[in-house]
């Protein structure tokens, strides 16, 4: 009777509310995948961005709620969730405010950063505090190993959980006689709930099987005649598979509905201003006035310092702030992409981008980062992240644009459940992008509208300020390493980072052999300009009281913001000789002393701005009887007797890690915890609690960049 019960109860599709909060588009794409699959399971998702608070109301929501939310910055909810989070964080709300609410939450994050999935955890914890109940376990997906490892099984299990939640909701509402009758029997025999769960699961499989025929969430069976036995010794690659994948029936995602139409126009005009592409709305076009290579030519990484002239703008900053650089895609890659798409002659033609009439995509709209009218080349250069790793939904769409049957099969494998390992190894871990795929699968000829639908927004790149406006009025400096992506079998072309490669090429005429990064005299001038906008920090600043001691830990280019700190402190000391200034510690590490070390740090030590400078060189060999420390966490342990008293007095500690993300940040945190444990004679768990208290009090600050 239970299968009949579900069919009768779901003659019309049952609704659930689907909310997403995204920073770079991943959470939105996953929410849209859930929305697309819902129909095949007899459900209807009412999908909204979390910022659209006028379109939903959790205070009165009766249906189950599914939330997909990412994390940005140093553990913050995405910008699109700020208003929502502020509303639910209202401490005047009673503990049972959301007692009527049942929800499931999927958080997205990266475990290489300290506050993994903190955006999702923040919302999850607060909803629980306000009385909301889980109808499905929270999922936390890790981008460092592949979101799909958690996302795919989480979505698979969602449907049964939703149906059971809706059954219980229907029972409570007592909305029809069939439900009432079953509800009565359930109340008399609680064990039937388990039977209902099993029955729902059976029916769930039935619905999936029926829905798959129309939704394309399918099991593709191979004709024996199409199976080719692989030669012995052949290994899988981006374009070749081996058993069992090559001989498996495949479960592939539903084909995303097309929703964008691109119309070429004969008219001419001007492209939009770059400021129209960012929600902040205000950009500053500033000249690059100086470029210095900080590392020797034979260093493993090339580190550059750039100086920008902001004197004629209202751009303001404090040491410790960050700012964003708007960068274009590589010009040769854009031309190559146009050539493959057969649009080489039309790159400078203006196009009009609109929503396709009759599209099956619910709530379809033109992406905000795509101008309604611009040249095709402008869209590919400034709007789309053409280097983005293609999502499985994009691969699924590319299948339909591929004429060669073997290539089509391989693309199906790469986006299938059975090919998850191949996708992780040959696409995600190899940093394969659209261009690489189009070279590997030459019969694939996607339309430009497909690229607009599936490629994410080209994000501005964030950098830490490496100067002080007090020390160098009208100037803004920043330091970065040129990112290198060496060639590999899945991606035979070596590339530089989108922004760092562009900046390095832009300032090539300005580069000098001098390593004197802090010399303020202008060595040459430049007419090259870049567009920037501010990204101020709320906490990563010098202490307001100059008498408070502070410590800095910055390996490699992680030294960048601390140069600004020290410049600012030096100027304050010059202007206010009667002030009391606290001690300053700097722990700095790099690979080689003769190739990577900044001699200017000694100047700060000699003039008294810096009280203690402790350095280490990870790749230098030593003939000393006792090997010197290699990493900053080793130096911290070595000199613990000198600095632990300031820490125990709860003075300020500043951290920024630029090159190794969470691995080095964790190493330093572990060192601090060990020293706390020894000095305070407490176990490691208690020491970790003390460190957490320092974080909470904003006295242990960490800014982690990749």
From TrEMBL:
GO terms for molecular function: [methionine synthase] reductase (NADPH) activity; flavin adenine dinucleotide binding; FMN binding. Its EC number is 1.16.1.8. Pfam families: FAD_binding_1, Flavodoxin_1, NAD_binding_1. Keywords: Amino-acid biosynthesis, FAD, Flavoprotein, FMN, Methionine biosynthesis, NADP, Oxidoreductase, S-adenosyl-L-methionine. Coiled coil: none annotated. Residues 281-543 form the FAD-binding FR-type domain. GO terms for biological process: homocysteine metabolic process; methionine biosynthetic process. Residues 16-159 form the Flavodoxin-like domain. It comes from the Eukaryota. Its cofactor is FAD; FMN. One of its GO terms (cellular component) is cytosol. InterPro entries: CysJ-like_FAD-binding, FAD-bd_FR_type, Flavdoxin-like, Flavodoxin/NO_synth, Flavoprot_Pyr_Nucl_cyt_Rdtase, Flavoprotein-like_sf, FNR_nucleotide-bd, NADPH_Cyt_P450_Rdtase_alpha. Transmembrane segments: none annotated. It is an enzyme of class 1 (oxidoreductase). The keyword S-adenosyl-L-methionine applies. This is Methionine synthase reductase. The lineage of its organism: Eukaryota, Metazoa, Chordata, Craniata, Vertebrata.
């Amino acid at each position: 009777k239970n299968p009949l019960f579900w069919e009768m109860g779901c003659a019309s599709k049952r609704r659930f509310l689907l909310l997403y909060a995204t920073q770079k588009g991943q959470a939105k794409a996953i929410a849209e995948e859930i929305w697309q699959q819902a129909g095949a399971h007899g459900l209807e998702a009412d999908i909204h961005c979390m910022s659209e608070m006028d379109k939903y109301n959790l205070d009165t929501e009766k249906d189950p709620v599914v939330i997909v939310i990412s994390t940005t910055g140093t553990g913050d909810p995405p910008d699109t969730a700020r208003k929502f989070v502020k509303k639910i964080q209202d401490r005047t709300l009673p503990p049972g405010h959301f007692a009527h609410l049942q929800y499931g939450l999927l958080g997205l994050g990266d475990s290489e950063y300290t506050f993994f999935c903190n955006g999702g955890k923040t919302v999850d914890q607060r909803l629980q505090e306000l009385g909301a109940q889980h109808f499905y376990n929270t999922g936390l997906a890790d981008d460092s190993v592949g979101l799909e490892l958690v996302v795919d099984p989480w979505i698979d299990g969602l449907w049964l959980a939703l149906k059971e939640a809706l059954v219980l909701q229907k029972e409570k509402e007592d909305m029809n006689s069939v439900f009432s009758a079953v509800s009565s029997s359930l109340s008399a025999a609680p064990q039937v709930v388990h039977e209902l769960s099993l029955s729902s699961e059976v029916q769930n499989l039935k619905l999936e099987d029926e829905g798959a025929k129309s939704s394309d969430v399918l099991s593709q069976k191979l004709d024996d005649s199409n199976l080719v036995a692989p030669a012995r010794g052949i290994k899988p690659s981006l374009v070749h598979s081996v058993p069992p994948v090559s001989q498996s029936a495949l479960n592939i995602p539903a084909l995303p509905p097309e929703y964008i139409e691109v119309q070429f126009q004969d008219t001419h005009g001007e492209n939009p201003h770059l400021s129209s592409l960012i929600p902040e709305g205000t950009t500053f076009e500033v000249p690059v006035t100086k470029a210095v290579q900080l590392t020797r030519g034979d260093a493993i990484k090339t580190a550059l310092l750039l100086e920008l002239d902001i004197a004629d703008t209202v751009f303001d900053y404090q040491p410790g702030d960050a700012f964003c650089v708007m960068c274009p895609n590589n010009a040769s890659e854009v031309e190559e992409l146009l050539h493959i798409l057969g649009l080489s002659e039309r790159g400078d033609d203006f196009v009009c981008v609109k929503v396709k009439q009759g599209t099956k995509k619910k709530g379809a709209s033109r992406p905000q980062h795509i101008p309604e009218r611009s040249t095709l080349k402008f869209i590919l250069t400034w709007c789309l992240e053409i280097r983005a790793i293609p999502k499985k939904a994009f691969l699924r769409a590319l299948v339909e644009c591929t004429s060669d049957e073997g290539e089509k099969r391989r693309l199906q494998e790469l986006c299938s459940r059975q090919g998850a390992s191949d996708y992780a190894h040959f696409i995600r871990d190899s940093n394969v992008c659209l261009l690489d795929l189009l070279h590997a699968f030459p019969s694939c000829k996607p339309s430009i509208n497909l690229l607009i639908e599936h490629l994410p927004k080209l994000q501005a790149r964030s950098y830490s300020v490496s100067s002080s406006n007090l020390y160098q009025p009208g100037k803004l400096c920043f330091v970065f390493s040129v990112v290198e992506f060496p060639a590999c079998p899945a991606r035979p072309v070596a590339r530089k980072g989108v922004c760092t490669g562009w900046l390095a090429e832009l300032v090539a005429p300005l580069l000098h052999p001098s390593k004197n990064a802090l010399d303020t005299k202008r060595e040459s001038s430049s007419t090259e300009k870049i567009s920037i906008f501010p990204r101020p920090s709320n906490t990563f600043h010098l202490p307001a009281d100059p008498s408070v001691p502070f410590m800095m830990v910055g390996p490699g280019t992680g030294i960048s913001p601390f140069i600004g700190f020290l410049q600012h402190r030096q100027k304050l000391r010059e202007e206010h000789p009667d002030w009391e200034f606290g001690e300053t510690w700097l722990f700095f590490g790099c690979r080689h002393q003769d190739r990577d070390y900044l001699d200017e740090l000694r100047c700060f030590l000699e003039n008294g701005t810096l009280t203690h400078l402790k350095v280490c060189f990870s790749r230098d060999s030593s003939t000393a009887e006792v090997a010197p420390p290699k990493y900053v966490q080793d130096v911290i342990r070595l000199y613990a007797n000198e600095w632990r008293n300031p820490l125990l007095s709860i003075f300020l500690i500043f951290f920024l890690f630029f090159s190794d993300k969470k691995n080095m940040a964790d190493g330093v945190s572990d060192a601090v915890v060990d020293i706390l444990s020894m000095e305070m004679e407490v176990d490691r768990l208690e020491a970790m609690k003390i460190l957490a208290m320092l974080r909470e009090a904003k006295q242990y600050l960490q800014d982690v960049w990749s």
